[in-house]
Design goal:
- The protein is an alpha/beta fold.
- It folds into two domains: about 1-80 and about 165-253, Rossmann fold, CATH 3.40.50.300; about 90-165, no CATH class.
- It contains nine helices and ten strands.
- The strands form two sheets. The protein has a six-stranded mixed β-sheet, with helices on both faces. The chain has a four-stranded antiparallel β-sheet with strand order 2-1-4-5, with helices on one face.
- β4 (about 55-60) and β5 (about 65) form a beta hairpin.
- α3 (about 95-110) packs across α4 (about 125-135), α3 (about 95-110) runs parallel beside α5 (about 150-165) and α4 (about 125-135) packs across α5.
- The two termini are about 30 Å apart.
Length: about 250
């Protein structure tokens, strides 16, 4: 059974039809990359899949259950993890506290025991888990305010917050956008590790080296319609894809 299924997804903003009958299916452990020109509908599709917008036609199912009308927080509790083009972190809080909050939110959602309300400190178990997650994404200066982090480190922190929810499906919107070459390599390495551990990943990405290096399946959108979907090598050679997006003379490692 597929982990994530979407059928006939349509979305309009007034008279503008942004998505037109989009279907996708993601198997457990698979990495799907969604690519296309600016304005193709990639981010809108992400909003539909993650519950950020519920005003659409078609259906979305997770592990065989229809979640089309479930809000984003309900999907997060079901096993969705999400990152954004611009990292969303609690800038006024210390780095480690960002992750502690995510761990405690996960526990509350599962009716697990958390620190009593009168104790301002997290449990040792929660703090140890937060430190381990932060180490896995390569973050230091754990007591510094998150607002002081560089763009790349804010992206890492957002990743840590997401992983603290113990998701089974990662929805990553432009995970390497605006990163330096070094930060991009580090992020790709993290994604490769997660992929090797069997994590299911859906991402949008403009860096084609990242896309063709990570994806098992590539979907190409243009004007809200699916142009092509398939293995990276097949998509790379598809004439319609080369015409609308990749370009005839472009090659990717």
């Amino acid at each position: 059974m597929s982990l994530l299924d979407a059928k006939g997804i349509g979305k309009r903003y007034g008279s503008l039809e942004v998505l037109q009958g989009v279907d996708l299916s993601v198997e457990p452990g698979q990495t799907l990359a969604i690519i296309g020109p600016n304005g193709a509908g990639k981010t809108t599709l992400f909003k539909v899949l993650t519950g950020e917008t519920l005003d659409f036609t078609g259906s979305v199912a997770f592990e065989g259950e229809d979640i089309s009308r479930k809000a984003s927080y309900e999907r997060a509790r079901s096993g969705f993890g999400r990152t954004f083009q611009v990292a969303r972190v609690f800038g006024e809080l210390p780095i480690v506290t960002n992750v502690v909050l995510a761990i405690e939110a996960r526990k509350i959602g599962r009716d697990e025991r958390v620190t009593p309300w009168w104790d301002w400190r997290p449990s040792n178990q929660t703090r140890d888990e937060a430190l381990a997650i932060l180490e896995s994404v390569g973050l230091r200066r754990l007591d510094a305010e998150a607002s002081l982090l560089s763009h790349g480190d804010k992206k890492r922190l957002e990743f840590a917050i997401m992983l603290a929810g113990q998701p089974r499906l990662l929805m990553l919107d432009e995970p390497t956008a605006g990163m330096s070459a070094e930060d991009r390599r580090s992020t790709v390495g993290l994604l490769e590790d997660l992929k090797a551990k069997g994590m299911t990943i859906v991402l949008t990405e403009h860096d084609m080296n990242v896309v063709f290096g990570l994806a098992d399946v590539v979907m190409v959108l243009n004007y809200g319609q699916v142009v092509c979907v398939g293995a990276p090598d097949l998509v790379r050679q598809d004439e319609a894809v080369r015409r609308v997006y990749l370009g005839k003379g472009m090659a990717y490692a």
